[in-house]
Amino acid sequence: MELLQHELKNASYQLEKNEAYMNARQLAHFKQLLLSMKESILDHASDTKVHLQSDTSKLADIADRASQEEEFSLTLRSRDRERKLIYKIDAALERIVTGDFGYCEKCGVDIGIKRLEARPTAELCIDCKEIEEKKEKTRL
């Protein structure tokens, strides 16, 4: 995942003066960014599959076995988060196809290039996201 973060930082979009929001060049940039994220996650997942297939029963020491089991558990939780991220990536790619990418799903305003660079799967503008987070806090 560190490599993924490095790739995202090096792939920032260079906005040109008076450039229209969510033009073809921007959409192509974000599509490529999302596809790269997905590919990186899938590559990492296949490495994990090989790692998880190692046999813990071969470890003689019960403490070593328990330690490896805990590591496997943490790895599986991480993969679950990545699985959810792939779902969000696929949803963002679908929004590119439908023409909804880059616009807030609640209020319809521009999400903004900087926010999309930081979180390409964003569905809400920063204002709507803050309101949603405040509502969640009051429910807890």
TrEMBL record:
<feature type="zinc finger region" description="dksA C4-type">
    <location>
        <begin position="104"/>
        <end position="128"/>
    </location>
</feature>
<dbReference type="GO" id="GO:0005737">
    <property type="term" value="C:cytoplasm"/>
</dbReference>
<comment type="subunit">
    <text>Interacts directly with the RNA polymerase.</text>
</comment>
<feature type="binding site">
    <location>
        <position position="125"/>
    </location>
    <ligand>
        <name>Zn(2+)</name>
    </ligand>
</feature>
<keyword id="KW-0479">Metal-binding</keyword>
<dbReference type="InterPro" id="IPR048489">
    <property type="entry name" value="DksA_N"/>
</dbReference>
<comment type="similarity">
    <text>Belongs to the DksA family.</text>
</comment>
<dbReference type="GO" id="GO:0010468">
    <property type="term" value="P:regulation of gene expression"/>
</dbReference>
<dbReference type="InterPro" id="IPR000962">
    <property type="entry name" value="Znf_DskA_TraR"/>
</dbReference>
<keyword id="KW-0863">Zinc-finger</keyword>
<dbReference type="Pfam" id="PF21157">
    <property type="entry name" value="DksA_N"/>
</dbReference>
<dbReference type="InterPro" id="IPR020458">
    <property type="entry name" value="Znf_DskA_TraR_CS"/>
</dbReference>
<feature type="domain" description="DnaK suppressor protein DksA N-terminal">
    <location>
        <begin position="26"/>
        <end position="96"/>
    </location>
</feature>
<comment type="function">
    <text>Transcription factor that acts by binding directly to the RNA polymerase (RNAP). Required for negative regulation of rRNA expression and positive regulation of several amino acid biosynthesis promoters. Also required for regulation of fis expression.</text>
</comment>
<keyword id="KW-0963">Cytoplasm</keyword>
<feature type="binding site">
    <location>
        <position position="104"/>
    </location>
    <ligand>
        <name>Zn(2+)</name>
    </ligand>
</feature>
<dbReference type="GO" id="GO:0008270">
    <property type="term" value="F:zinc ion binding"/>
</dbReference>
<dbReference type="InterPro" id="IPR012784">
    <property type="entry name" value="DksA_RNA_pol-bd"/>
</dbReference>
<dbReference type="Pfam" id="PF01258">
    <property type="entry name" value="zf-dskA_traR"/>
</dbReference>
<feature type="domain" description="Zinc finger DksA/TraR C4-type">
    <location>
        <begin position="99"/>
        <end position="134"/>
    </location>
</feature>
<feature type="binding site">
    <location>
        <position position="128"/>
    </location>
    <ligand>
        <name>Zn(2+)</name>
    </ligand>
</feature>
<protein>
    <recommendedName>
        <fullName>RNA polymerase-binding transcription factor DksA</fullName>
    </recommendedName>
</protein>
<dbReference type="InterPro" id="IPR037187">
    <property type="entry name" value="DnaK_N"/>
</dbReference>
<feature type="binding site">
    <location>
        <position position="107"/>
    </location>
    <ligand>
        <name>Zn(2+)</name>
    </ligand>
</feature>
<keyword id="KW-0862">Zinc</keyword>
